[in-house]
Each structure stands twice: as C-alpha cells, then as structure tokens.
Design goal:
The chain has 1 helix and 5 strands, in the order E-E-H-E-E-E. It is mostly beta strands and 82 residues long.
Length: 82
C-alpha cells in the first residue's frame, strides 16, 4: 500500500517546450525521488533521464534538459510508485 510523501516540485526547462514542466521529480526506475538539487544530480548521473509529474508523467532524457529550478509548490506523491 502506498503512502503519501510531501515532496518539493521542480521546474524542468526542456528543449522544444515553450513552458517548463513543474512537478515532482522521480528516477526512471521509480526507486527514488528528488527532494533537493543534489538528488536530481544523482538521478541524472545514474539514469541519464528524469521522470517529471506535471498532470501526467513525462520521461525526459538528459540531452533535452536545459536547466532545473526550484518549483513554486509541494506535491503529495504516492510512495512507493508501482
């Protein structure tokens, strides 16, 4: 059974998108989530991609990420993901 984890959101600015994705950041293998910038860096080094939840899940490969900034809100993420 999943519990809800209160995580910060991040704005992920992606090439070829007019607006950044703003949401929770999770590793593509769904085994970890990011609560700060060093954790985003660890996910990118390990997987060379991010999963971002912005109304739906988006798989973003490293080569499409322009930069990441702190989001404006927090998100209740069901954890662990299935």
């Amino acid at each position: 059974m999943s519990e809800k984890v209160n995580v910060p959101t991040f704005e992920v600015h992606v090439a070829f998108r007019e607006h950044p994705l703003d949401g929770a950041v999770v590793a593509p293998n769904k085994k970890s989530y990011a609560s700060d910038f060093p954790e985003i860096d660890e996910i990118l080094q390990s997987h060379r991609a991010l999963l971002v939840y912005d109304s739906k899940w988006h798989y973003i490969p490293l080569h499409q990420i322009q930069y990441v900034t702190k989001g404006k809100q927090r998100f209740l993420l069901p954890w662990p993901l299935v």
